[in-house]
């Protein structure tokens, strides 16, 4: 009798649950359709265009399928040396931009965490640059980095000679390497990463994972020692690339704008750490530096990872800041985003421009997809 009285209630709950799911699906369906068309549909169209020789906006253009020829030219053809330098520029810009934003943001957060007077005023001042667009920031810093004005003439205020720093027009290049050595460099970086992972797995007593990563590191190292990396086809002649010093000014401007963002993230993290943990460490004899080294910084690691993901994808697709500061035709401060604009919309080489866009998409995906995968997996486990 009890089963019969509970059954209608159970069935009613199931119908209500199904009705809610259908309503939620219908509410999300328009967004899913628009996302599929205007994001993933256009990504697919761009990828297909990169596999053709589309080179104009004629009324009836003749478009032939050429496969991955555009990608092969970008990475190996002598006429596309600027693209390869752009990749190197992006790497160095991303590296120093992340270090600058994380370091400055953490420093400001630690200072504000000392309960200074006027904290809200300082917090607003540090966050204000983030409210500006990259175009505004680029215009301001372009005035400041004018070789005949701005920062260079500041010493004249106290009667000294003006500085002679060329800033974003500097042609000096440091930390140069041969592009033909890139496969070997990448392989060595992978080996070092795998060895580090194997060491962590060993510390965690995960022997199977340690054996897999260690074995992979040994195989890749043997491949390099046996000349496998040298056999990878790159450019037909040696090609030197390095860090263009002109990017120093752009890195300063980008760090100035987004260090307030990392400051806000770190400050929220610091305020979320229980004060008892710090006091317990101090009672046990830990110095203030040791408190930050062994207590605070490890607890801030998830925030650091989130900041790296957000700032990393911004730096990999940077366009407007460099366009405003140095213009589109300054080859020393060129990046893939600007080269894609010049190639597609000035040079009418739409297929090659699409290939550059897909390379940028892959670079951003390499940063974001592992983070999303680990985040979703951890949420599923919870």
Mean pLDDT, all residues: 88
> How would you characterize the largest beta sheet?
2 strands, antiparallel
Q: Can you count the helices?
A: 14
What percentage of residues falls in helices of 4 or more residues?
55-70%
Q: What's the total count of β strands?
A: 2
Rounded to the nearest angstrom, the distance between the terminal CA atoms is: 38 Å
CATH topology-level fold name of one domain: MetI-like fold
Strand order of the largest sheet: 1-2
Name the overall outline.
Answer: globular
What class do helices, strands and sheet pairing give? Answer: mainly alpha
The CATH superfamily name of one domain is MetI-like
Radius of gyration: 27 Å
Classify the beta-strand content into a percent band: under 5%
Q: What series of H and E elements makes up the topology?
A: HHHHHEHHEHHHHHHH
Question: What is the name of the CATH architecture of one domain?
Answer: Orthogonal Bundle
Low-confidence stretches: 1-5
CATH class of one domain: Mainly Alpha
